[in-house]
Amino acid sequence: MSETPQTLFQAGKLDEALAQSLALVKKNPANSGLRFQLAEISCIAGDLERAERQMETVSNQDPNAALGAALFRQLVRAEMARRECFFEGRVPEFIGEPNPVIKRHLLALAAIREGDLGEAAALIQDQTDVDTTVARAATTWDVNGEAVGELRDLDDLLAPILEVHTSTGKYFWIAWDQILSMEVHPPKRSADLLWRQASLSIESGPDGEVYLPAIYLDPSQPVAEDESLRLGRSTDWVETHESIVRGRGQKMLLAGNQDLTFMQLESIERQES
User: Which of 211, 244, 260, 262 would give a disulfide with 251, using CB separation of 3.0 to 4.6 Å?
Assistant: First the structure.
């Protein structure tokens, strides 16, 4: 008896799961559930175009599944916008005017795209004291119910940034101190390991359901080669220039003195000093 795409996926055999899922769809082209499964595995494998094609087909052939397919297509489009931001120069969306720290990190990303790692390192290091001093002086957070005085991504480029996808296909950079509260929902489907659903409340912004990218984009290429990294089951660190560290695989945060994997994140609530 052959293994199913889901058992292959759970075993960490991403490429085999993708091949098996594709074969099942070819045998059962009218099965929307199989097309959703193929779309989810395709996204994790980095083939966003295939995922969008599957959802377009579902929308056209199954009215009962059209709403779910429409949401999935918007998340795929948000992920495409994310990759265009990292690798092609697209500017992310913001809530209000981005603060000086965020602007410097956006310039650092541009320098990385242009191959100027020295300039990127200078921009990131130039704002480090501003980032930590201002954040610690002005804001504390409860993270998973524990009070912390510092909250950042462990990837130096993304340190002051929470990446957010919306159900309208937008990709945002949110500063940590813009967050009033966030409740992260437990994963239910394979795609939830790629984009974690959360209820987010933002200062001077809308409240609602969002989707948080949980896996870093590879510093050197849009799709990581290692299956464990693509699945978000491990994290690897790459020192790019002058001790600037970039992440691959599952995202990780620094909450106070604790390293926190993105799958361990349950809630954030801002506490005013």
Answer: 262
